[in-house]
Design goal:
The protein is built from 2 helices and 6 strands, in the order ββββαββα. With 110 residues, the protein is an alpha+beta fold.
Length: 110
């Protein structure tokens, strides 16, 4: 899946040690474009943190996986980015995303 938006906030880096050794996790808040913007907390793991080099305020496209898991009768959902792109192509994608609902409204029968 893909999600476009503006990086609103970069949360503190989390680190630890597990059975497979050291791990690093970076979460960031992405706000989607449109009339009703949504905020999504997305997680980057390991080397992808350095590869993405995110900055607050920049427009990005994140390729994500969404997964839920059960723990003690409760369900938790993770949104993990496996690739983050920056640049002019992201802005072009956002423009077409914003224009799409306007064209759909014109086709409504009522």
């Amino acid at each position: 899946m893909e999600i476009n938006g503006k990086v609103l906030q970069i949360l503190p880096l989390a680190t630890g040690t597990g059975k497979n050794g050291e791990w690093r996790k970076q979460e960031f808040i992405l706000e989607t474009p449109g009339q009703y913007p949504k905020k999504v907390c997305i997680t980057l793991w390991g080397d992808r943190i350095d590869e993405s080099n995110l900055q607050e305020g920049e427009e990005v496209k994140a390729m994500i996986d969404v997964e839920s898991r059960e723990y003690n009768g409760r369900w938790y959902t993770d949104v993990k980015a496996w690739k983050v792109e920056k640049g002019s192509s992201v802005q072009e994608d956002n423009a077409s995303f914003i224009d799409a609902p306007a064209h759909e409204e014109d086709d409504l029968p009522f």
